[in-house]
Design the sequence.
């Protein structure tokens, strides 16, 4: 079993009948606490309560949340996930938790990745409680701000892929594990879009450490294929506008470039050589 002072927060909006993450967690053997983090502007709250139970639903005031951080624009509308992200530390304290994970609502699978017979293999997880425990132990034993799983798409290229070769990258997206500290130690995700990228680059340049491990992968529904959540905002503004939020966060290290070959699209590019502080190897010590 996973420790009692930990819970998974599932960030969702407007799609109680189109949730994948809960069933996926049960499939991989998770037995711990979970809560849906919903804003009070969601017209489908009763649907979540009816389907998952009121004890699994936490509601926050979206207008109040909006006063606490910079969304980086003056656009209308609040139909993006960053508001929910920025109330999770306070909610965790209210629930008496010492740790929490932030998940989204569209996860299809969690897998272990490993090398076998000169290829990259995958196997479904059956004891997700243990995976959570390892992640929390890591937070206890280090000064890392958060640790996350790699996304399945990052395993393209197999053993020769850049993510697998590095094993650990200085980024974190989608599946954040956090340790709850004092309120003054909290941080805010910034920007309407790319709030995760903005966080690990902006805070990374200040010495905070966000890490992603490649040995555990998460697979989710294809972006913008589900109604609700961030989908409408993504469709309205597009990838070009979305990427510029990270340029505003770290203009010295992030630029726009074309990504992909068959269907190229504009995307942000991070120059890690200039983005975060580096530790010089002891071999250069005199």
Sequence:
């Amino acid at each position: 079993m996973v420790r009692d002072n930990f819970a998974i927060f599932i960030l969702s909006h407007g799609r109680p009948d189109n949730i994948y993450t809960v069933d996926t967690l049960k499939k991989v053997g998770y037995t711990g606490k979970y809560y849906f983090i919903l804003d009070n502007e969601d017209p489908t709250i009763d649907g979540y309560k009816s389907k998952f139970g009121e004890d699994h639903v936490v509601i926050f005031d979206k207008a109040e949340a909006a006063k606490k951080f910079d969304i980086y624009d003056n656009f209308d509308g609040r139909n993006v996930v960053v508001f929910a992200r920025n109330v999770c530390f306070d909610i965790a304290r209210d629930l008496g938790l010492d740790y929490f994970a932030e998940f989204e609502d569209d996860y299809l699978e969690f897998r272990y990745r490993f090398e076998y017979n000169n290829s990259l293999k995958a196997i479904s997880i059956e004891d997700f409680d243990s995976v959570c425990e390892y992640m929390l132990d890591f937070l206890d034993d280090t000064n890392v701000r958060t640790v996350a799983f790699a996304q399945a798409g990052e395993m393209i290229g197999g053993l020769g892929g850049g993510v697998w070769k590095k094993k650990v990258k200085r980024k974190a997206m989608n599946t954040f594990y956090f340790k709850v500290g004092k309120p003054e130690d909290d941080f805010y995700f910034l920007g309407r879009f790319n709030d995760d990228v903005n966080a690990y680059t902006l805070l990374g340049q200040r010495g905070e450490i966000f890490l992603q491990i490649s040995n555990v992968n998460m697979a989710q529904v294809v972006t913008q294929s589900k109604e609700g959540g961030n989908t409408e905002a993504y469709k309205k503004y597009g990838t070009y506008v979305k990427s510029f939020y990270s340029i505003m966060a770290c203009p010295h290290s992030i630029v726009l470039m074309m990504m992909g070959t068959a269907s190229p699209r504009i995307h942000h590019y991070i120059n890690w050589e200039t983005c975060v502080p580096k530790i010089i190897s002891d071999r250069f010590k005199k």
